[in-house]
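FYI - complex with flavin mononucleotide, inputs then prediction.
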Amino acid sequence: MKVLTVFLACFFAAFDLSAQEAVKLPAPVVTGGMPLMQAMKERKTERAFSSEALDAQTLSDILWSAWGYNRPDKRTIPTAKNRQNMEVYVLKADGAWRYDARGNALIPVTSQDLRPLAARQDFVMSAPVTLLFVADDDDDYAGMHAGSAYQNVGLYCASKGLHNVVRGMIDRKALAAALGIHDDDDIIISQTIGKPVK
Ligand SMILES: Cc1cc2nc3c(=O)[nH]c(=O)nc-3n(C[C@H](O)[C@H](O)[C@H](O)COP(=O)(O)O)c2cc1C
C-alpha cells in the first residue's frame, strides 16, 4: 500500500509540474515584531492549529526568517564555510513548493497536497503550512543549519502569535520521492506552522 502511495504521489507530481506557475512573494517585512528577549521567552511548541491559510506576507516573512538573504549574498542563518547548502520546501493544501530565496518566490513542485506524507500526527493536516528543511545529511552540519532555520521561524512565530512545532515524525522516503528530491539530499526535519485555534 505504501509503495502504491509513493508511486501515485510521484506520478501525479510529474503530471502536475506544468500546471503551476512560480508565485512571487511580497517583500519580507524586516522591521518591527516583538522585542527579541520577549520572543525567546514566548517561544514554544504548540500542537493545535486553525486550518485558516496563512497570507502571502506571513509566508514570505516565515521563509525569509528561515532561509532568506539579509545581505546581498548571505542569509538570515549562518552556514559552515558559507556553503548555503540547504533547500526549504513548503507543503500546503494546494501543493508543494521550493522556496527561491533569491527571487523571493515559491517554485512549484506539485499541485498535490503532500501534507499526509508529513502527517504521522493528526494535527498536521489541520495546519496550513509544513516546511521541510532539505540538505545532504552526510554533511555534518546539515542538522545545525536546519536547526538554525527552525529556531528563527520559531521566534518569528512567537513574535506573531503563530503556533509551530518542529517534527521529525515524517515519512522522509515518500516525501523525497514525491518531491523528486535528489538522491544526495535528505529531509532533515520539518516544521508545522499555523494560527492558533480560535
Ligand atoms: C529535532 C526535533 C524533532 C522533534 N520532533 C517532533 C515530532 O516529531 N513531533 C512532535 O510533536 N514534536 C516534536 N518535536 C518538538 C519537541 O517535542 C519539543 O520541542 C519539546 O517537547 C520541548 O518543547 P518546547 O519546544 O515547547 O520547548 C521535535 C523537536 C525537535 C527539536
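Residues 8-18 have pLDDT under 50 and may be disordered. The helical segments are 2-16, 36-42, 56-67, 123-126, 142-160, 172-179.
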